[in-house]
Amino acid sequence: MPSLRQSSKTMLTNFLLTLLLLQIGTTHAAEDFYKLLGISRSASQKEIKKAYRSKSLEFHPDKNKNEGAAEKFAEIAYAYEVLTDEEKKNIYDRHGEEGLKQHEQRQGQGGGHGGFEDIFSHFGFNFGGHGGGRQQREQSTPNVNIPLRVSLKQLYLGDTIEVEYVRQTLCVNWQECMKANQECQGPGIKVRMQQIAPGFVQQVQQRDERCIGRGKMWSSNCRVCPGGQTQSEKIDLTIDLQKGMYPGEPITFEGVADEKPGMTPGDLNFIVTQESHEYYHRDGDHLYVTMEIPLVDALTGFKHEFEHLDGHKFVVNVDDVTECDHVMRVSGKGMPRRGGRGGYGDLFITFDVDFPETLTVEQKKGIRKILGGRGSDEL
After folding, report:
1. How many helices (DSSP H) and strands (DSSP E) are in the chain?
2. Mean pLDDT value across residues 24-40
3. What is the rounded distance in angstroms from the CA atom of residue 138 to the CA atom of residue 132?
4. Taking Cα atoms as reference points, which of 160, 151, 153 lies closest to residue 275?
5. What is the 3-state secondary structure (H, E, C) of 60-126?
6. What is the pLDDT of residues 340-378, one digit of tens each?
7. Tell me: the pLDDT tens digits for 80-95?
8. What are residue 163's DSSP bridge partners?
9. CA angle, 314 as apex, 313 and 318 as ends, to 5°?
10. Where does residue 206 rank: exposed (0-12), middle (13-18), buried (19+ CB within 10 A)?
């Protein structure tokens, strides 16, 4: 004969399973708000209010004693609340109820309903519906990184660049292609219950791209979205390339990446990629250039006119003897400084002395005479 402890444990297990089955049986995905009120998606506020009054009277718990009337009345009230709030309505039209839940959670409006959900959360179960003990972290589509190839001149002056970008946006009527499926626990996440022993069940999580939200699954071959969940959209973007931007620096357009049901769009990042310049080389805020000078200039001095990246010209004067690989610093002739520091970096000029390959006898004697060297007959 089973012991009292075993009997109590069996009764508790059966009780919990019974509550679980009741919860699964009564939980369902919310109906489309427009269909719930019996109106079109282009309905005016006056039409929405008229439909709400009619539906609320039909399902009011004091007048309608049918099973499920109270739940239907609550759903109608919530649909009316959303569709008469311009901000919530825009979010619902674009992202559906899942996006609306995420918005409410961010605004601190999402609350738990307690009850069975709170009880079963201690056993590792997670049910659909508004709120609950644990809020699902908002998911977004992947960010997109695109190289933006620009010249050193563009980075010196700054530039405005117009580009076209093609992304995937949600099918206009995508919400009509959803069907209820309680195994869907979020975008791409499917959780099913598996009995591992009498009285014991286990959650098994799987990847299923058909799941687009909690309790919602995409209906294949949906007539209102024959091309699938998304469609191509071409958008025009204006890129503001600021003066002195660094290679590898991103220019971000938030929420412009591909759209997907139940997820917020990721960011589109244009990554600054600097093309090489014929003469100048950049390192941070500074510019570098190598200049070849003849031996006579290295010995006697010289002046040279440079043309900068923006076309303005400046002159460098050298009066002293210039050694080979000597580096001269010219202040304020580098790149514009970033980060609100103002001003410009510096230009560093490396002089490469070009020695003659041969000298005539007369040239050698002249150089020796000028520099005071000893002749070969004195060696």
Report:
1. 9, 13
2. 66
3. 15
4. 151
5. CCCCCCCCCHHHHHHHHHHHHHHHCCHHHHHHHHHHHHHHHHHHHHHCCCCCCCCHHHHHHHCCCCC
6. 677 999 999 999 998 888 889 988 888 888 877 665 544
7. 888 988 888 888 887 8
8. 237
9. 145
10. exposed
